[in-house]
Design goal:
The chain is mainly alpha-helical. It is 42% helix and 8% strand. The protein has 7 helices and 3 strands, in the order H-H-E-H-E-H-H-E-H-H. The protein has a 3-stranded parallel sheet. Helix 3 links the parallel strand 1 and strand 2 (117-123). Helix 4 (125-132) crosses helix 5 (138-159) and helix 6 packs antiparallel against helix 7 (188-198). The two termini are 38 Å apart.
Length: 199
Amino acid sequence: MSSHSKMTSEVLPIGSSPLESTKEFISAAAQNLGSHLRRIPNGEETEQRSNFIAWQHSCFRIELIQPRWGGQPSLRKTGRKYTLEDIKPVGYHDQAIASYPILRELKASGVIPPDMRFRVCLPTPLGVVRGFIVTEFCSAIEPLYEERLVDAIQRMQEQIPASELTTLFDLSFENATLEVDRGRLQDPDSYWESVLLSS
């Protein structure tokens, strides 16, 4: 038996794609990976989300964002308390709900099999907040962002059948944090910046 025949048949696409649209990506993934796929990404590799979580910094007020991402901490008002109203909706639900009909269309036309699930990749609040927010405000902002993310997930669940929806959390920042704790990553800020810029 060849080594190829012994390989597992399931493939989990991750990372970015050079393709320009969700429909193009889903079609190409299905046609090239075929039966190796059980869950197909909803296009997070293309369009607005092609650079990992970089698009999420627009959820935050400019005075909360680290200067390296264009933030202006000097605009902060002393003693200001931030609330949920200061965090914009994360947008993952809008993207998923808009691209779900593409999955249904491609199923109906036979491009992808009827049992293919629709996968939505999400960041953790820790990853987004620690990546973009000035350190002294992370503990206050993280639960607010988490509330926005939970709301996005609930909205997806309202619009996309549970039998077709899969969510996947991307843990690149979290794994880097473990490496820092173990002493194997000496400059986490440079690492996290490279992750965001190279995606």
